[in-house]
Fold this protein.
Amino acid sequence: MRIFDLHCDTITVCEEEHKKLRKNNLHVDLERMKKADSFAQCFAIYIDQKKCESTHLTAYEKYKKSLKYFQTEMSENKDMIAQVFKSSELKKNFQSGKISAILTVEGGEVIGEDLNILDEIYSDGVKLITLTWNYENAIGYPHSSENGLKQFGFEVVEKMNDLGMLVDVSHLSDKGFYDALSVSKKPIIATHSCARSICNHTRNMTDDMLHALGVNGGVVGLNFFRSFLIKDGKKSSLDMVLKHAKHIVNCAGIDALALGSDFDGIDGEIEWKDYSGMQTVVDTLGTCFNEEELEKICYKNAYRIFAQ
Ligand SMILES: [Zn+2]
């Protein structure tokens, strides 16, 4: 089964730890992706404000550094993977036996308070921005907060709509989620979140949020992190993935569920280990979903929202 994974932090970790994308000891590398039938992978340039400060980099400089690493890796591995700038390239890459790489940014700090930077990073091929990470920024407030989008945040969502960039609400506060939903003219996405009624964590989505996302035509990528799967989870288990998947489909519909591993952004034991175990996840989901439903979850829903 082809896999379209909506979120991993592999690019940033590789850049920071001087590792290679082709083969490494992280959760994701090209060799394992190829074996596990990767169709497309969203690679996030992940911005942690506090970490940037400690390394004396602005969020924008950190973005540039990770971007350079990403571009070098794309060119060194062009026999296996190619960055996608237009959605038609997803099919083209597949036909030529290549994995599609989609560049994303996790943390709207990259644009600061300057809408023009959105144009610039769009031309770099950034197709999606996770509006906040775990800190307040010029766009809005993170999941732990009662506050939603700021005025600038509303402008950012509108401009992202105009450019054709996906608005990612994972990490955003509940109020921010509803704000983004109310202003966005296009479906929005939660790339790596789970169901809060199964595991009570503010990073997860309430039943009402899931329902609203489904009505909006949006997509949620199921996160593999143990603490989002089960309260005080010590290990990411297949049972819990299945439980969240069923619940998300019940609330948001079969057209809303996708995969958002969060590989290389999560720690702890994972029952299926790393990207090499992706087909084990598919087999587990296959105990409850039929072939057509599985295709939607594994790649078709994610494909649809990017193509839109
Ligand atoms: Zn994240």
